[in-house]
Each structure stands twice: as C-alpha cells, then as structure tokens.
Amino acid sequence: MKNRLYGLTLFLILAMPVFFVGFSCEGDDSEDKGNNSDNDDNNDDSQGPDESPPWISSECIGRDQAQLLGISLIVDGEETEMPAIVFSTDVLAIAMEYSDESCKIEGGLIFINASDKDAELTDLIRYHYDIEEIGCSSAEDGPFYLYINPIDFILPEGVERNFPMEFRLVDYCYSASKPEYLPLDFTVVEE
Questions:
Q1: Predicted TM-score (pTM) of this structure
Q2: What is the DSSP string of 117-166?
Q3: Of 52, 67, 82, 115, which one's alpha carbon is 20 to 30 angstroms from that of 162?
C-alpha cells in the first residue's frame, strides 16, 4: 500500500506541471499578439501596439477624447473667482463645462489632486468622484455640477498648499480628457 501511495504521489508531482502548462495554452495560437484566439502576424504573446488592454470595452476603441472646456468654483450658489478662501460651512460646488462627441463621460471619474509640485500634499489631497447623470455636452445640457465637502480640503495645521490643485476628468473608457487637467484653486478655513 505504501508503494502505491508513493507511486501515485510521485506521478502527481511530475504530471501536474505538464497538465497546467498544457491547460494554460489552450485556445492560444502561435501567431497571436494577445492572450486571445484570433490570428495575428507575430509569434509573441505581448500586447500589440494597436490593441487595447483587455479591460477596455470594444465600444471605446477609435473614439475621441472628451474635452474639458472649463471649471468654475461655486460657493453658496454664486460663482467665485479663484484663488478663493472658502469656509468649512459653505456649500461648495464645481461647475464643469465639457464636450464629448462619443458620450462616454457617464460612468467616468473626476479627480481632484494636489499638484505634483506640492509633493508633501499628494497623499493628503487625492479625491475621486463618480460621474452620474451627465449629458454629452455642457452646451446642450448645461454645466455639470460636482458638489464637494469643503471639510475634506482642510489642511493640517502648519501645512500649506503652494500650487493650484488639479481637476481631472477620466471617461468611462479610462481615457483622460483634453486638456489633461485644469487648475482648481481654493483654500478652506474653519469658521
């Protein structure tokens, strides 16, 4: 009985790598650029320069980037010139002007980050917001209003921001807008 168990164990140890290697290559041909089953002209399994990453939907291929046309700071319902001082109790919003011929902003993200030039703040000011219920263009649908909590932007005592923050738009297809970001400049103080 011991010999049979020893033989079976040895067989499994030797056979399993062959099984897994053979299984992982199933459906992949030798002339394939990606990890898919359609034929390409190359013999490598690296992603080709004209192929999208596998997590990108096919509807995202070959479409234009969204245009980030402008942002305005809205404090207690009124447009406020930047740079601005905002109180922690104010109602704070950012009105975004945009255009997206491909209508892929819905389901995307807005990021508000500290500038890379403010290296000590990059971990403190790093927020993202889901984009829901937005049209294809602010010219047709009006600006998109993002309401944010001013308290999130209060800096610890002794820490100062020296450069404007960056307002970024990334669409449903994980594509950054043109321009990549716009400056956003306000400081929150406690009331």
A1: 0.70
A2: TSGGGTTTSEEEEE--S--SBHHHH-PEEEEE-GGGGPPPTT----S-EE
A3: 67
